[in-house]
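Sequence design from tokenized structure. All designs in this work follow the same two-part layout: the structure record, then the generated sequence. An example of the structure record is given first.
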């Protein structure tokens, strides 16, 4: 009797380990954005579990995916309900999500080709969007000139960029998102940007001469300032600007943010 009970416990433990191997294999497949092309053969190869053993625990590909969606949905729910309110809660959520690669993949990866499971996945993501929207809506220091819906979409886009396996800068973006909310970059100069219409009217030449035809004022810009002005005449994305400066001039993010904060302040005095 005791031997039988011990054997049953051992089988149960082995079965649970096999199931976790399969779910972890699906995490890795989804992490490469290959979930739409998932097959039992791929899961078998990724998990290093033979087809025969695999089908002892899961009757089909759909059963594997269903278990994966169910477990990751529960993990996401547990993380959501543990969020404190306000900015502290958003930062807590982002840190925990970005540290959990499996859960981050669940939130960001391309959906599977099984219709009812794809719907379950999208429902979980929509519920998360609604929760983040509600938290952002209650923030007292959020940007006043941007809708809560746009801020929520922006946050989701930043989360995706921090996960995207095809993004060579994802680790840097993940590190940044773990320390500040996307719109907090405004404190480094974004809010101090002159109006885009003002920037677009500036006449620039390659020597660095800048002329404002409305005010009649002119000044000379160095190569970095000229690069910034030309970029801002065509783009509004401050994060993309910092990235472009890092790539073009081989400076780190903190240096770029510090220098641009000073430049934006001077610029506003000249052409506001």
């Amino acid at each position: 009797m005791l031997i039988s009970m011990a054997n049953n416990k051992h089988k149960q433990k082995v079965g649970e380990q096999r199931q976790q191997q399969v779910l972890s294999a699906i995490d890795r497949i989804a992490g490469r954005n290959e979930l739409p092309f998932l097959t039992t053969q791929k899961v078998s190869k990724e998990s290093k579990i033979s087809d025969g053993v695999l089908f002892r625990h899961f009757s089909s590909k759909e059963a594997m995916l269903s278990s994966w969606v169910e477990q990751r949905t529960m993990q996401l729910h547990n993380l959501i309900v543990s969020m404190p309110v306000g900015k502290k809660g958003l930062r807590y959520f982002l840190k925990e999500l970005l540290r959990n690669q499996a859960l981050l993949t669940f939130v960001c990866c391309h959906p599977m080709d099984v219709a009812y499971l794809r719907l379950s996945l999208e429902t979980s993501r929509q519920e998360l969007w609604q929760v983040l929207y509600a938290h952002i809506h209650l923030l007292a220091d959020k940007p006043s000139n941007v809708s809560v819906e746009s801020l929520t979409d922006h946050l989701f886009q930043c989360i995706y960029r921090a996960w995207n396996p095809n993004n060579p800068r994802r680790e840097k973006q993940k590190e940044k998102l773990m320390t500040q909310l996307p719109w907090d970059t405004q404190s480094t100069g974004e809010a101090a940007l002159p109006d885009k219409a003002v920037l677009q009217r500036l006449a620039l030449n390659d020597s660095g001469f800048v002329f404002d035809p409305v005010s009649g004022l002119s000044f000379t810009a160095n190569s970095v300032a000229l690069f910034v002005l030309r970029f801002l005449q065509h783009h509004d994305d401050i994060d993309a600007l910092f990235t472009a400066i890092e790539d073009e001039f081989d400076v780190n993010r903190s240096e770029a943010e510090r220098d641009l904060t000073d430049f934006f302040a001077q610029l506003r005095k000249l052409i506001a």
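Residues 186-191 have pLDDT under 50 and may be disordered. We note this feature because it recurs in several other targets discussed in the main text.
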